[in-house]
Amino acid sequence: MSGNDVRGRTPLSLVEQDPDLLFYSRQADERGGPVLVLGSANGRVPWSLAGHGVSAVGVDSSEVMVRSAEERRAEEPAEVSQRVRFVASDVRVLRLTERFPLVLAPQHSMGMMATRDDLDAFLATVCHHLAPGGTFIYDVLNPPREAIIRDDDDDEPRAPLEPRRPLFALHLRERKPPGGTAPIRRLKLRHFAPEELEEALSSCGLTLRERFGRFDGKPFDLGDSRQIGIAGL
């Protein structure tokens, strides 16, 4: 694939130089599109992929986020805009007809899954949409080891809720039409212990193939602040 789009522009992912966008664009180059992005928020990752020449479908449970992502459409060239579509849906129950060679859960989107049942439902959505031989890639916060708590009746480690800094602040406010009251939904974001994620992936039939601690490919270790996993069926 050429490093430029059809107008000869440098892809957005390369202009911005954000490590995660570069990483996801390279993964998409290797595996091809279209790409399904679960928890697309304001569309940052899908739009970056589209600017890089890859078709993407962004899904988010927040209609506010989907509207925010759509606002960028008017600023993009037609050939970029036509590569992206956004869907407002609970990712736990999403069932599209398409299958994808690459499914992404970027920007700690799995952290919105507050319980193990929620996580299992999220991963079932991943499996449903993966094409044969497809790849699932996620990035999540890694809990500090001292923060992992244990239940007195259970020897298994349990990761606490609430990371030390807020993420996805725009998810917490849902606007109503003019004249209505704007409610605030308070959502907890979850850390996942590496062992917990690996077990959940395995239970859903996914095999963890690689795990990194940074987007530059550094191998993961327990002291890293982030887990970046690559899994497949």
Description:
It is a single chain. With 233 residues, the protein is of the alpha/beta class. It has a single domain (12-232), classed as 3-Layer(aba) Sandwich (Rossmann fold). 27% of the residues lie in helices and 21% in strands. The protein has helices spanning 12-16, 19-31, 44-51, 63-71, 78-81, 116-129, 194-203, and strands spanning 35-38, 56-60, 84-88, 100-105, 130-141, 149-150, 157-158, 207-212, 226-232. A seven-stranded mixed beta sheet has the order 3-2-1-4-5-9-8, sandwiched between helices. Strands 6-7 form a two-stranded antiparallel ribbon. Helix 3 links the parallel strand 1 (35-38) and strand 2. The protein is globular. The two termini are 26 Å apart. Residues 1-16, 147-177 and 181-185 have low confidence and may be disordered.
Distance between the termini: 26 Å
Global outline: globular
H/E series: HHEHEHHEEHEEEHEE
What is the domain total for the residues?
1
For this structure, what is the CATH homologous superfamily? Vaccinia Virus protein VP39
Report the β-strand fraction as a percent range.
Answer: 15-25%
What radius of gyration results from the CA coordinates? 18 Å
CATH architecture, by name, is 3-Layer(aba) Sandwich
**CATH class descriptor:** Alpha Beta
Structural class: alpha/beta
Largest pleated sheet: 7 strands, mixed
Strand order of the largest sheet: 3-2-1-4-5-9-8
Uncertain segments of ≥5 residues (pLDDT<50)? 1-16, 147-177, 181-185
Task: Look at the structure and give the mean pLDDT.
Answer: 82
